[in-house]
Design a protein that fits this description.
By secondary structure, this protein is of the alpha+beta class. Helix content is 30%, strand content 29%. It contains four helices and six strands. Strands 1, 2, 3, 4, 5 and 6 form a six-stranded antiparallel beta sheet that branches. A hairpin with a 2-residue loop joins β4 (48-57) and β5 (60-67). It is globular and about 45 Å long.
Length: 140
């Protein structure tokens, strides 16, 4: 799909999101829904960053992930819907597409239980380290 274009998901910062920021986006008027599809954890810490998310806005479901190579958010799924009831299946598809980009497999996705957030790493993977580096650079 490609990099975020001007005007699309402009509510996302140019750095990874904290889980609290992801929740704040969900509560904002900018989106019908925002939910993490993957969360990375910093080694020996409770710090968590959203590495992939699903956003629903203006009749469109987006799957996005933070690309540590390009140092920015990338859209990997975009699908429109007419009726809100149609969005549920699209949200699942968007979540899987975003998770694929950060290395989650089908077994990880099946472990999700209702509102539980998928935890990508319990320690710090190379991806998580780079994600936290990008966050630290973006908040200096």
């Amino acid at each position: 799909m490609g990099r975020l274009s001007p005007g699309m998901l402009e509510s996302l910062p140019s750095r990874p999101l904290t889980t609290a920021e992801g929740f704040a986006l969900h509560q904002s008027d900018a989106f019908r829904m925002v939910t993490p599809a993957s969360v990375s954890t910093r080694a020996e810490s409770d710090d968590e960053l959203v590495s992939a998310l699903v956003a629903v806005r203006d009749g469109v479901v987006f799957g996005v992930y933070y690309d540590v190579e390009a140092d920015g958010w990338d859209v990997v799924y975009r699908e429109t819907y007419e009726e809100p009831s149609e969005s549920n299946a699209l949200v699942d598809e968007a979540g899987r597409a975003a998770q694929d980009e950060v290395g989650l497999d089908e077994a990880d996705w099946e472990a999700v239980d209702d509102a539980e957030v998928v935890r990508r790493e319990r320690g710090e993977s190379e991806y998580a380290r780079r994600l936290f580096d990008a966050y630290d650079r973006g908040t200096e």
